[in-house]
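Example (one chain per record):
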Amino acid sequence: MLDLIWLIPALPLLGFFINVVFGRLLGEPKSGALAALMVAGSFVVTVGAFFDLISMPTEERHHVVTAFSWVPVGSLHVDLAFLADPLSITMALFVTGIGTLIHLYAIGYMHGDPKFSKFFIYLNLFVFSMLMLVMGENLLVTFLGWEGVGTCSYFLISFWHTRESAATAGKKAFVTNRVGDWGVMMGMFLAFGATGTLSYAGINHAAESGALSAVTATAIGLMLFIGACGKSAQLPLYIWLPDAMEGPTPVSALIHAATMVTAGVFLMTRVNPVLSISYDWAPTLIAIVGVATALFAATIAVAQTDIKKVLAYSTVSQLGFMFLAVGSGAYVAAIFHMVTHAFFKALLFLGSGSVIHGMHHEQDMRRMGALRKLMPVTAFTFIIGWLAIAGVPPFAGFWSKDEILLFAFAKSPILYVVGLITALLTAYYMTRQVIMVFFGEARWNDHSEEHGAHGDFKPHESPKIMLLPLVVLAGLSVVGGAMQLPFTKDLHFLEKWLEPVVEFGEADIHHSWAYENKYILLGIAIVVAVAGILLSAAVYAKKKIAAVEPALLADGWKYDKAITSFMGGPGRRAFDGVAWADRTIVDGAVNGVGRLVQGAGGFLRKGQTGAVRNYAAAVGLGVVALLVWFFLRGVVL
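Predicted structure:
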């Protein structure tokens, strides 16, 4: 099966082409079923590749399939090649597995949309691009997928382009990601200049063998980190992700939970040897940016009223935890949290979509309440996702978040404390969301006339095709933590699986105070999660404490508005100034040289009369001039 790994990205690409040609003819739901079938096929191939790899000795779990020589230019030889190793197969498993569930869900969610088949064209193209990103054997193939998911996110976020907010959100995501893409390109240039290759194997081997200097490794790592900040929505480039909620909910689940936003964490993990030999302050900077983003986004989430905006800022916050892990040298914990987050956040996004569907496209949580009785399956599965993200044992999110906090404490107690505060806020705002949506008083009757129901408005449960993915993801959110339990080494399944990839870069904390007292930290994490839940319940369920939702937090600390004001004011004038300098000075110099040459040529052209006697006279004058010169030279000498 390993020789067929090219099928993993090829099948969604085939689905894309079939729907481009025959999508309208197939119509609803066949075009959606075809798209889902292709992604399911990729999942089957990935599972086969996983079993092939796991049957091999640990040191041999590395298989490359080359399609063709892509860029044979001088010393630069880049193949369109696919890499099957524990990291790429782990990524491909949850991209295709959760992608299949989201495709099935979308068949029900997009029912009746006039552009039904076009939506699945974009969805298949997105999955193809993401699989190219994670399975690329070298940075250039990864960058192909990197640009592909950026383009597809623009198409999907602005899918309902007749809504100005959606069109604007799509452009915002596209432009913001371009900033990060610059960082990836610079990292590629530096890596090739230093090692002569873009292959991950070559770059990482240069780092491990000492052929790569610390200063170069730091530059490469930080340039790639800039790209990761753009794609994975970290400060200061997170601003595109909350607005991306304008896309259909399956897009939110696919892009903002399971796939695209994890690309930055994947890239950092892939080049972990480079980060390991860089200067110590570089990983520390990554950890600081991660934990600052986590806390910043969590504070904003506590005051949001849009059901999807809460989850959007939650995603930014959880991605911050993953970068805290990367900066702390906890690459296994980063991938662990990435996988569990894919389970429970996809569940929460799809659950929110089910609520929106049942509420006739209402997204304001202040107009919900008491939905658990009318939407029992959605409520039950959403509550499981809430317990997982809040860090309640034994749900999946507890184990992965605790492992990150363990490594963070070993690196710096300050990082640990900030991470713990963020965990408290996570439990708080997610409990707030569950209470506002599924418990308390039913507030939707007060707004029934806005839906044209004239008092007959009543929320309803979603169709079975939308509920099935919720049930599967709920199950994964319960048992997902079993892949990496902290009790004994025998239960570290994910660590053993990823060992060939992260062995060089993984931090060793076995002799630290944090590791020797990990059960104390485990207990503290439980207490913090329970405290966040109880505090939120006291505020929103029992009304014993007044809710604190400052407008400043609801407005995202006005960070987005500040950037908008800058771009529309000083930034716009600066860009106009740069354009003037380019037009006047740069182009002026080039055009001036051209006009100078043209003028000189015009002057010389006047002497080219075409009359032979004129040329003969010029030759004669030249001969006389030469004789005079030789005569005078002889006299002087």
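Caption: Residues 451-455 have pLDDT under 50 and may be disordered.
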